[in-house]
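Lecture 7 notes: from sequence to structure.
We start with the chain below.
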Amino acid sequence: MVLRARLAVLAFPLACVALSSCAKKRHITATPAAPMPGHSSETGLASWYGHPYHGRAAANGEIYDMEKMTAAHRTLPFGTFVRVTNLGNGKSVDVRIIDRGPFVAGRIIDLSHAAAEAIDMIGPGVAQVRVDILSIQAVAPAENWYAVQAGAFQDKGRAERLRESMERQYGSARLVLRRGYPALWRVLVGKVHTEDAANALAERVRQEVGTGFVVRLDEPASPLAGSPVPSSQQ
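Predicted structure tokens for the same chain:
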């Protein structure tokens, strides 16, 4: 009994020290990510872009550095992190969405030069990839707006003719200039709150003009903030 009592007396200060040490440790709570969208993964072609967009403002307003791990996506909110896996070799890279694109049918993401290099797609220019969302930037429902890109032209006259035709058909269509080499006039049709509604509109537009894909409408960082043309198209 005496031995047990002595052990208990010794154990008590040690327990207090341990508890005190734990209490001094800073507790870090991760910022909760927004709920994943229904389609948290997609598969398709990736391309990449570098010069002449290096050093210019991306669509979210920050300066694009082609040697950082970033990417352009047509609909994911800025600040979203995704993992891009090259299905040809199994290599993957994590990137942050800061820009809009690619505005080429059949492609789902435009990678920075550094990100493309990490998964060995610099030479081919394009690769079949899977894009998995790691964390998605929260966006207020009132800020979610989508449109359908019906075409992109170097010739403003051709773009204006398509815009007028789309406006007659769908009641709303506008031109958006994407500065670059070459500069492109994008024809955007409609303005809806959900991707489902935009996808339905895109299907109608495709039947009308043969092409059409959904894009997110962002509050522009500048009146002429634009998106890249894939380097394989330059």
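Points to note: The chain has a mean pLDDT of 81. The CA atoms of residues 203 and 212 lie 7 Å apart.
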